[in-house]
């Protein structure tokens, strides 16, 4: 009696064989060797071309965020083209029939080549990361951190926008030509950008809820960006205090002496705060009365950071997120190669990638963004608006997060963003595109004489 696992094992062996053929073809074509040389040049040469401000933090930004980001961009473009060639070049040269005659489904062949190219990407990405880490030997260990980021406990921007909207509606302060959804989006954006003035001699504070109990050392960092109301530089002199939000024992103070319009990251340590989940942080602005008032944006420019995990593990999480993005690009290239010839697939992939990046960087348009037009032009603009919003929504899980920026800033890559990238990059996108590629391969083979 045949085992119920026999069909699964048969397809798994077929997929592994297809993946091995894809990797072998890439190695034989010397694409891997050329890519290794290019990645080595980017990893080792780019940090010597970009000049920072000479601080260890700037060097860390260059060697991680910019160098690894450029290497991932090169690897992504190569993956996209390799995926196009895996099917498109073979079909154009009539070599695909040598693989298609084997007792394997088209989806199995697609999945095997996708797995092979993703595995090759993982090896190359690990090599690039190892080269970048070798250049971090002179960076102080105090900068190689992994910290959770907590925002202050503030009303949600949408709730504050709803409250302001109801108040303006009662007083007649809403524009007559602005719809309710557009007004709520505008008010929510204004709430996120809202600043709080800190006059000399005053105090401002926020309460933070930590995702996990504070470690034994009670070590925290308060991060805030302070501007001046007068748009001038000013010495920021004051004291930061941290204590339990419930009024328990354990406080810490640290002096602040920096220039305004700078990002201040003040370290606070209080072992008595170990195990706390809610803490209160206050800042006393100790300046002469004639000094300019400070301006801080609580929603955007205030955060509390607490240690969580190791730097190496956080870097691995960032690389895993980028590997999910490469997996999605590989799936896109394979599907385009199954639908078109290799030159057409490579051109379409490059153009589509440029449109994707432009759409991901563009802000979400609102109804007020539509120009005053009538007739067919108005309908065309609405269709374009829907398409842009659809592209933004589809790409936000993959291109929205910035894991390398998190690692360079000493921030732990958010677990929710990581799960979303893996789900979309290694799950939803490959599954959807594999079905489209199987249908395209079926039609192209039937159309062959």
Layout of helices and strands:
Layout: H1 6-28, H2 31-49, H3 56-92, H4 96-100, H5 106-134, E1 147-150, H6 157-171, H7 180-192, E2 196-198, E3 203-209, E4 219-228, E5 235-244, E6 251-259, E7 262-269, E8 278-285, E9 294-296, H8 298-301, E10 302-307, H9 311-339, H10 342-361, H11 375-399, H12 403-408, H13 415-446
Antiparallel strand pairs: 1-10, 2-9, 3-8, 4-7, 4-9, 4-10, 5-6, 5-8
Helix pairs in contact: 1-5, 2-3, 2-5, 3-5, 3-9, 3-10, 5-9, 5-13, 6-7, 9-10, 9-13, 10-11
Can you give a write-up of this model?
The protein is an alpha+beta fold. It folds into 2 domains: 6-146 and 311-369 and 401-446, no CATH class; 195-307, Jelly Rolls (Sandwich). Helices cover 57% and strands 15% of the residues. The protein is built from 13 helices and 10 strands. It has helices at 6-28, 31-49, 56-92, 96-100, 106-134, 157-171, 180-192, 298-301, 311-339, 342-361, 375-399, 403-408, 415-446, and strands at residues 147-150, 196-198, 203-209, 219-228, 235-244, 251-259, 262-269, 278-285, 294-296, 302-307. Strands 1, 2, 4, 7, 9 and 10 form a 6-stranded antiparallel beta sheet that branches. Strands 3-8-5-6 form a 4-stranded antiparallel beta sheet, with no helix packed on it. The longest helix has 37 residues, at 56-92. 32% of the residues are buried. Mean pLDDT is 80; it is low at 364-373.
